[in-house]
Structures are given as structure tokens and as C-alpha cells.
Amino acid sequence: MGGVEIFGVIGFAVAAYAVVANDSIQTLGTFLSSNAKRPWWVLWIFASLIMVLVIAYGYFHGNGDVAYDRLDKLSVIPGEGDRTALLVPGIKWWHALPPVVLLVMTRYGIPVSTTFLVLTLFALSGGASGQGVLQSMLVKSALGYVVAFVVGVIIWIVISRTFERWVFDTKEELPFPYWVSFQWLSTTFLWSQWLMQDLANIFIYLPRTVTVTGGVTHVSFDPTYVIGGTILLVLIQAYIFATKGGEIQKIVSSKVNTVDVRAATIVDVFYGIILFVFKEMSNVPMSTTWVFLGLLAGRELANAYVAHLRDKGESVRDVLSDAGRAFLGLIISILLAFLMPLIGTGKLPGL
After folding, report:
1. N or C, where is the chain less crowded by C-beta within 10 Å?
2. Cα 58 to Cα 219: distance, rounded to the nearest angstrom
3. Within 10 A of 283 (CB to CB), how many other CB atoms are there?
């Protein structure tokens, strides 16, 4: 096994843990909060089953593409016209570094965008093939935050005085069984949408077959890589669930009513819908972290200013803190994307 492949394996393994530890908790956080009294292994089996089904669907329905088209713009092979070739990503040591940084930042509870931390480096070090991808990711992610924030404000202005107040006032009561069913269904929808967006952040480290037909790019992965990667992800998911989500889970738990299955269900539904809309909009990768924070920010402010469920100043500080840490993560991601190739090759990557 050559050096490039070794770093590819290391990068894939570390990225698998880092992405699941950071981003999946932002998706499954409300699910964990509102089901904290259930055995962790029950929640793990449920989430892992959905993950296996999503990966299997992507592989069979997408002709081997478990990244759901998110790597098309980052998988360019030389030549013109219709062509097919095996793309070995050419992983260097600096490609394997971002997931390690993500692990450290996750430990301190910083909600980092793995899309920027991992994919930006590949986009900038890909030469002409990566030109314009970073800008597209930034625009789409910023739009995702704004849309999610506006949706959060509008929806929770409407429901905060009634629904959220009802949840807040009856939080000690046992919720009706159908609310539990609703939440597990909404989690299924949200978790599947997140996986379709962010599996690219993990599988980008692996070799893939790239086919260009009529100017349209398609990637496919060897089934051995897919099976091995899926097993690793399931095992990592077990650790995350057994440790109750870690530091990132605290961001979710600090928000109003997120431990209540009823409120968590509404958050999951709208988060999933927003991810679905942006997934269908284009195959440019985007930060699901920014969408998550935008929705929670709009919700928190509406709950504080309209329903008065939380101190206004406290909610503003909370929202600004989350946004500030996310922006810090973005700056670190872009700096790494420029500095690592510079240290390794002596040359700055081009935009």
C-alpha cells in the first residue's frame, strides 16, 4: 500500500469519526435529548438502520454513488468527451489533518462545518478542477443559514405563544404516545436528509470511478469500500450514542424545550425540509451546520421575544455565541485549506 493510500485510509477513518461526532449530533441532538431515558443501544440500532438503508439506496439507486452527487464537482478526470477513469484522490498528509482538527474543536464544543473543514482543502488543492467550488459552497451555506433563520423566526412567531407555551407549561407531564411516533418518523426523515448531504465529507478520501457522459459527471465506489465504510460508521455511531452525544450535544440541550419530544419533533421536521430543498436545488456541497444553527437561532429569538419563554438578553448571547463559534470554525477551515498545501509543497493553492 503506497503512502497516498495510507493517508487516504487514515483520513477516511478519522473523518468518519469526526463527522459523526460533530455533525450527526447536530442532526440527532434533539432525538437524543428527548429520548434520554431510553437505552442508548435502542437509539443506536434505530439510527444505524436508517444509515445503512440510506447508504444502500445511494449505492443501488445511484449506480454506486453513496455521496449522492456531492462529489461530482470535486471528481474531475483529464481528457475531453465521454470518458471513464479510476480517480485516486492523491491524498497527502495535509488532507488527513482537517478531521484531526475537527476532533479537537468538537472536544471544546465548537460547532464546526465539516463541509468547509474537509471539502475546502480538496477544492483548493484540486487546481483548475476545484475552481469556484469554495465560493459556491460559501454562497449556498450562507443562503442556508439565512433561509433557516427566517423560517425559524416565522414558524415560531406563529406557534411560540400557543404550541411552545403549551409544551413549556406541560413539560413535566408524560407526552401522548403518538408524539413519540411522530418524532421517530421526523428523525427518520431528517437523519436521511443529513446523510445524503454529508456522506461526501467522509467518502471523498476513497478512490472512485468517474464517468463523464455528455458533459455530466458521475462517480461510483467499489462495494468493498462501501461495506467497510458502513461498518466503521455503525461502530462509531455506537460510541457516540453510548456517550450521550458529547460536547456538541450541549448546544442542543441548552435551547428551550429541546428535551421535550413534541418540540423536538417540530425542529426536526423543518430542519429536514430545509435540507431536502437545498439538496434538490443543486449538487454543490453545503454546510448543514449553518442550517442547523440558523434554524435554532430563529427559533430561540422568537421564543424569547414573542412567547417570553427565555430571557431576551440570554437568548441573544446564546445565538451570537453559536454564530461566533461557527464563524471561527469557518476561518480555521479556510486557513487550513491554504496553509497545509503551502507547508507541504511550498505553493499556495489557487482559488
Report:
1. N
2. 11
3. 15
pLDDT, residue 153, reads 94
| CA Rg value for the chain | 20
One-letter amino acid for residue 23 of the chain: D
Strand-pairing partners, residue 209, are: 86, 220
CA distances from 75 to 78, 205, 213, 304, 338 (A): 10, 11, 14, 45, 20
Instruction: Give pLDDT, residue 37.
Output: 81
Close Cβ partners of 185 (under 8 Å, ≥ 6 residues apart): none
Q: How many CA atoms lie within 13 A of 197 on its CB side?
A: 39
Nearest 5°: the CA angle 59, 201, 5 is 85
Chain center to CA of 142: 15
Tens of pLDDT, residue by residue over 90-112, are: 787 878 888 888 778 767 766 66
Greater model confidence, 329 or 306:
306
Task: Report which of 57, 13, 20, 76 is spatially closest to residue 225, judged by C-alpha positions.
Answer: 13
Q: Domain boundaries in the chain? A: 3-337
* Amino acid identity for residue 79 in this structure: G
| Distances from the Cα of 93 to the Cα of 84, 124, 208, 252, angstroms | 27, 15, 19, 34
Q: What is d(CA 174, CA 162) in angstroms, rounded to the nearest whole number?
A: 19
- Residues 193 and 273: their CA atoms lie apart, in Å, by 8
Return the DSSP state at 24: I
Burial of 231 (0-12, 13-18, 19+ CB in 10 A): exposed
SS3 248: coil
DSSP designation for 87: E
pTM of the model: 0.84
